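#struct-pred

JT: dropping the chains for the assembly here, can someone run the whole complex?
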Amino acid sequence: MTDNIHPLTRAALPGLTQRYASEKRFRLIGLSAVVLSLSFLVFLIGGIAFRGMGAFVQTEMQIEVSAETVENHTGSSFALMRKISLENFEASARSERRLSVSMVGEGADEDLENALADLGSFSGTARVWVRASDDIDVAWKADLDPEMMTTLRPKQVEWLQALANEDRLRTSFNTGFFTNGDSREAERAGIGGAFVGSLLTLSVCLLLSFAVGILAAIYLEEFAVKNKFTAFLEVNINNLATVPSIIFGLLGLAVFLNVFGLPRSSSLVGGMVLALMTLPTIIIASRVSLQAVPPSIREAALGLGATRVQAVFHHVLPLALPGMLTGTILGMARALGETAPLLMIGMVAFIADVPGGFTDPATALPVQVYLWSDIPERAFAEKTSGAILVLLVFLLLMNLTAIIMRKKLEKKW
Amino acid sequence: MADVKSQVSLTRPNSKLREQAIKVSLMASSMIAVLVTIGIVFSLAVEALRFFSEVNVFDFLFGSEWSPQTAMRADQVASKGAFGALPLLAGTFLISIIALMVAAPFGIYSAVYLAEYASSKRRAVLKPALEILAGVPTVVYGFFAAIVIAPAIRGWGQAIGLDIASESALAAGLVMGVMIIPLVSSISDDVITAVPSALREGSVGLGATKSETIRRVVLPAALPGIAGGLMLAASRAVGETMIVVMAAGLAANLTFNPLEAVTTVTVQIVMLLTGDQEFDSTKTLAAFALGLALFVITLVFNIIGNMIVNRFKEAYD
Amino acid sequence: MTVTEKKTADQQAPAEEPKIVATNVKVSYGGRDALHGIDLEIVARKVTALIGPSGCGKTTFLRCINRMNDLIPVAEVTGSITLDGNNIYAPEVDVEVLRRHVGMVFQKPNPFPKSIYDNVAYGPRIHGLASNKQELDKIVEKSLRRAGLWDEVSDRLEAPGTGLSGGQQQRLCIARAIAIEPAVILMDEPCSALDPIATAKIEELIHELKERYTIVIVTHSMQQAARVSDYTAFFHLGDLVEKGETEALFTNPKDERTEAYISGRIG
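RK: done, full complex below.
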């Protein structure tokens, strides 16, 4: 044995130093796989947040209104808005008149009407804020980046610069984005209708899938005799959980719409389709939480003379319920983000009105995202990302609720 | 004895009936799951059969030309080749394979790290974080693929002199791959954890380093299970709709070039059924035939995948 | 340097010189003591049996000798164990080198899900002990011969190792361990999962192996300890109660606990 080399160190085994290096490399590759996957997530959500934050605010411009014009005007506020636009931008040529009118946005007349009502009677001139058109909105939010002003005419750019220099542009919170229904005009389009549509759809889905899912789970876990039929049921449920969602849409189309004749595009049918889709998820989660209830609880109840039904409904179910709810929330989160099956049953039409009931034509948040993503106008790209952000916030809240419930549950057992 | 019997009744006639009713309703609820399956199979099969009375099954499965638009006109309904699904199936598999090529390395290496290296604290944070990727709605991935990834890929292609379609299979496949990373990773994680520690000890006891043990013993042992997991992931990719609707092409294109635009089964189902048309047209019936094909393909993938994974887990129980 | 020429320190040392010296070895799992201060010398090229009732710490001690306890994050080992005078718990020691010299055979046969050949070749391959295929073939054949398995498997080296019978699997694991020419082989109840015939074969093998290797065997069978070992150490509740030559310990135990155990009153 050589004196200066410790026989149990890497110096005594040729190649070990390289093996250690490859060990480090391997570990690093594993870590970077996780980190890269997560950075894609950050990139995805960050990119959409970056694009979509603008949807929550809208650009307004300050216009001058002379008391004289208002007093002399007799027609609609829409016509008044036109007149005031012409005055403000001193448009004389016929072509300029059209350009000046399209500086203000759809619904600016309402802003004007409200502002005048607030002002009451006034003399001379007053300045009021009205919403700008979507092209102005896009340009102003991009800090008048020339690349984002390609849709504006040179004259309009000139006016826009002038407004900017006089500090007569601002952004304010866009309430309409949350309350309005869909619109062909970007400055008026909102997710209100889609949101209510999602709400109605999810209520139907929850009602059906929760009730049926839990009852089915109780049967399978507590009452079913283990035989070939129940084994078939189980395989069936597990396979249903992996059926592509679009297939459920086809089922809804063929059965709910064409056989039962239920109203097309309605949140009722949407909810029913999503309920069928989430049912297996809820059954599986509910069975797991029933399995987690110790058998001693059942035995104790049965030992006191309770029937099986009593033992399950009075003692086992209350203990399993939180776990079942957790699974249900996760199922609902999935249903909320689902688009494809809703396309199949016609929830993809342009619907300007906020739906008032379960049988009204409706869309849902993710479908709205899909619809808007198809519109080439720039202003709608921002709306699309904005709608996605709202959708993601809801999903986050639902998942957090589920996680917190699960944590509480763990402490209990 | 007779007295006692008259006082203690051992039967409860009133509640018997109610109990029975409750049990029946419980059973009925679980039967709904079967009804759904029957409903799916029947509605798809019935409409598909009507479709196949107009279009030959073999022309549908092996025809290389897909152009449902021409068949809209009554005189062309019988024209052969317009409903050849081969390009759609090829497109579907092309995009799924790209997705798996992304998801497999990322998913498996992530699983190796999480199962073998990460401390339990780090694992508790990273694993759910990775799961978020699976919770993001597919419409979001589709939007992102269409407005960020596809233009970026096209831009890179131009920079190196490659002409890449703006709706390339590559863009859709890459994003879909990211979406199924958590699926691959969680199944691989399960499978890797199921490899008995006796095998790890056997290797470490011979003086192997951790990575040598993982690469030469654990992963080869886990391979069948991981392959089963990839089958399940492939089934997800084949059935995925929104990403391809938004980021893949519409034109049927029989190609295996990932830089070209291809269309998929799900894209065509959506295209055939959205918009206004008569329900009984060959076009809408074709959507159900495609639906049936999709259902069968994903079912087969799932059954095989589950069988492999379960057999693997049982082998080491 | 080829494997056959390599002389381990063991082969140069005089027969009675201790190969392994454990001094005051204590192990605790997350604060719970499993071993309280073990002092034991293990003689070169002899078989030392560790016996005692289950949970007495004999396996824990065995796993200290090639630092397999390192795999358990909460395990804490203090004291010193030397191999040929070198402290194996010294900070500069690389466990891979240690384990290359101190092989291990486990309670349940754990062949890798690979071919018989690849199982035996695994160790030489990772440590780079063979420079070509012929050398590797030689090592595999020699190891299988020494493990008494060659005649049974020579015609199906490419068959999976997991397809062998339990006793064959365990001998395959022994072949796998000796393929890297360790100085010491640790055996953790190697026959507990085997039938009596397979057990007899392994015991016979141990007899042959001790000509070349220092063997430490954990067993819960006193008969087995009596049959195969030269020295025996009796563990009880984390203490080393008694140690000595096997014959002396079994015929004339000094401690009453040892006597109680070998007469079947505790265990």
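JT: nice. Confidence is low (pLDDT under 50) at residues 1-5, 76-81 of chain B. Chain B is about 75% helix and 0% strand.
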